[in-house]
Structures are given as structure tokens and as C-alpha cells.
């Protein structure tokens, strides 16, 4: 059974960053879509990114761009894979406004989404 990546969120000066740590091979980030283009920085390890049903493999270091409205999910291809989704908030003032719904589930209902503020 695959697990979900560990997630940490940050929102500073209208820049949203979601850190995803895939501790084991096969861990996933749920399928979701954004209303804007966004980038994911694959910092270490390797990911299979599936966009609208089409899978592609990436190895760090790599910047992965996903177009607006495209459903995408990520699965680690090796342990200790780390990736960061980075984008502007686009007028929102909170993490829930910055980050989209995940398959129709509001972020507040996902206990793994916890913001980190220093």
C-alpha cells in the first residue's frame, strides 16, 4: 500500500511553497489541478508525474512545469525523494486560497497539510 508524501507548507510575501517528502518508493501526492500554471522543483530523488493520464519520469535536479487545469499526481521512484511546488498566491491571503482542492476535498479536511511559519 502506498503512503502519501509528508507535506509542509509556507506562505511568505505572496509566494507559496509546498514541500513534499516521499520517504519511500511508491509514496504519492494526490491528483489535483490548479487554476494557474505552476512549477515543481524536484530537489532530490526521482518522480513519476502523471498529467491528464500521461506518465513521465524525472530525476533531480529538475524543474517540472504543469499547465493550468491539468490534473496531475506524483509518485516517488526511489526513497527520500523531495519536491517543492512553488507559485504566487495570486490575490489570496491564506494557504487555503493559494492551494486548490484535491479531488474535491477542501484543504482543511486534509490533516497532513500544516503550515510552517517562523
What does this structure look like?
The protein has a single domain (6-89), classed as Jelly Rolls (Sandwich). 3% of the residues lie in helices and 50% in strands. The protein has one helix spanning 95-98, and strands at 6-12, 15-22, 28-32, 38-44, 46-51, 54-59, 62-66, 72-76, 81-88, 114-115. It is globular.
Summary of the model, kept short:
The protein has 1 helix and 10 strands. The chain is mainly beta and 118 residues long. A hairpin with a 2-residue loop joins strand 5 and strand 6.
What order do the helices and strands come in, and which of them pair?
Elements: E1 6-12, E2 15-22, E3 28-32, E4 38-44, E5 46-51, E6 54-59, E7 62-66, E8 72-76, E9 81-88, H1 95-98, E10 114-115
Parallel strand pairs: 1-10
Antiparallel strand pairs: 1-2, 2-9, 3-8, 4-7, 4-9, 5-6, 5-8
The span between the termini is 34 Å
| Domain module count | 1
Unreliable segments (pLDDT under 50, ≥5 consecutive)? 104-118
Largest sheet: number of strands, sense, barrel closure: 6 strands, mixed
CATH topology: Jelly Rolls
Question: What is the CATH class designation?
Answer: Mainly Beta
For the record, the CATH architecture stands as Sandwich
Count of DSSP strands: 10
Overall, the morphology is globular
Helix content: under 10%
Q: CATH homologous superfamily name? A: Jelly Rolls
Mean pLDDT: 80
Sheet with most strands: strand arrangement: 7-4-9-2-1-10
H/E element string? EEEEEEEEEHE
Bin the strand percentage.
Answer: over 45%
SS summary, helix count: 1
Structural class: mainly beta
**Rg for CA atoms:** 13 Å
Amino acid at each position: 500500500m502506498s503512503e502519501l508524501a509528508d507535506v509542509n507548507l509556507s506562505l511568505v510575501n505572496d509566494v507559496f511553497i509546498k514541500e513534499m517528502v516521499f520517504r519511500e518508493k511508491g509514496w504519492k501526492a494526490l491528483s489535483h489541478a490548479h487554476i494557474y500554471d505552476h512549477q515543481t522543483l524536484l530537489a532530490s530523488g526521482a518522480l513519476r508525474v502523471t498529467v491528464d493520464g500521461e506518465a513521465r519520469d524525472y530525476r533531480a535536479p529538475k524543474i517540472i512545469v504543469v499547465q493550468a487545469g491539468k490534473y496531475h499526481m506524483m509518485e516517488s521512484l526511489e526513497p527520500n525523494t523531495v519536491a517543492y511546488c512553488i507559485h504566487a498566491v495570486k490575490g489570496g491571503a491564506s494557504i487555503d486560497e493559494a492551494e486548490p482542492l484535491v479531488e474535491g476535498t477542501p484543504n482543511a479536511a486534509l490533516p497532513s497539510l500544516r503550515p510552517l511559519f517562523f
